[in-house]
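1st attempt posting a full record on here, be nice pls
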Amino acid sequence: MSTGQSAAGSTAGALRHVLSHLVTPLLMCIGMGLAYLGAFHAPEPHDLRVDVVGAGPRAQVLAQTLQDKGDGALSVRTVADRATAVNHLKTQKSYGAYLPGKHPELLVATASSDTSATVVEKVFTKVAAAQGDPLKVTDTAPTTDGDPTGQGIFFHLVAVSIGSYASVAVIGGAGAALALRIRAMLVVGASLAVSAIGAAFAGPLFGLVDQGLGGVWAMAWLYSAGILLVGVGLHTFLKRWTTLGVMVLFVMLNFTSSGGIFRPELQPGFFGSLHAFWNGAGFVEGVRSHVYFGGYALGGHVLVLTLWFVAGLAVMGLAGLAEAKRRSVAAHAQGTVGSRHRAGAESRPASRPGVESLSEAERRAEADAGEELEEELEETVGV
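the predicted structure (as C-alpha cells):
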C-alpha cells in the first residue's frame, strides 16, 4: 500500500470516528430543545387553584364567573374567611386568594412560586380594575432577601445536579477498573462534597435560605447520592452513552419538571405529571416546604428522594451482578486462550507474521478505553 493510500485510509477512519461521536451532542441538542422549549416556551395556567373569600352571593357569583371565563385556566373555590385562605396558601392548597369589597385585597405566597403568584396577580388586577378599585397585594409567604424571585432554589438544584452527573463520568469511567464497593465509597464521598458545596452556595455565599440550612444540605446529599448511584450503575451497561442517559434523566426531564421556574399548573401535562415523582421536584418542593412552610408535606418529598436513592442502590446491585458475570466469562475465555497459546507455542518455533500477541492486544484495548474515557469526560464537562 502506498503512503498516499495509507494517509487517505487514516483520514477516512478518523472522520468516521468523529462523525460517530457527533451523534451524542446532536441527540443532546434535540433532547434539550424538546425538553426546555416543550416545558417553558408557552406557560399557561390550567386548573390553577385560587380562592375567593366570602360566603355571600357576591363571592359565589364572582367565583363562578372567573371559573367560566377562565375556560379551565383556574380552579376557583370560595372560602369562608381570610384565615382559611391564608391556611390554604401556607399549605399550598391554593396560589392566590381574593377578598372582594371596597378595598379589594389579593393574598399570594411567592415562596410557593413567584411565577404562579404573578399569574394570579395579573388575573385579579383586572378584576379589581373592572370594579374601579385599586388592588392591594399581600404576600403571606415571602422569600428571603437573598432569593427575591424564589428561583434561587432551582439554580441551587442545577449546581448540585451538574456536580453530581459530571462526577458520574469520572467514577464510572476512570474508576471502571476499581471494585464496585470502592466506586460506591467514591459515590458517597463525591455526593458529600457536592452537597456541601451546594449548602455553601445556599447559605453563607448567597443567602438563598435564612434558616434550616442543615436540612437543605441533607436533602441535597440524598438527591446527589441518588443521581450518582443511578449514573455509576448505568455506566456498566451504557458505557460512553452514559452521559446522554444521565442528561435525559437528570437534566432534560428533571429540571423541566422540578417546579423551580413554573409549577406544574403552568406547564404541559407531561411535565406536570413528572413533577409528582421526579427527584428534582422532590428536592425543590422539599426545600420550599422545609424553609418556608414549616415542614408541611415534607415527608412526601423526602420519600421521593429516598426512593430514587433506593433505585440507585438497585442499579448498582445489578451492575455488580453484570460485572461479576463478565469477569467469569473473561476468566474462562482467558483460560481457553492461554491453553491454545501454550499448545501453539509447542507446535510452532515462532509466531506467524502479522499475528498480534496477547499483550499487544491488551495494550491496544487499554489505549482505546483511555480514548473513550477522555471523550466521555469532554462530553460531560462540555455540556
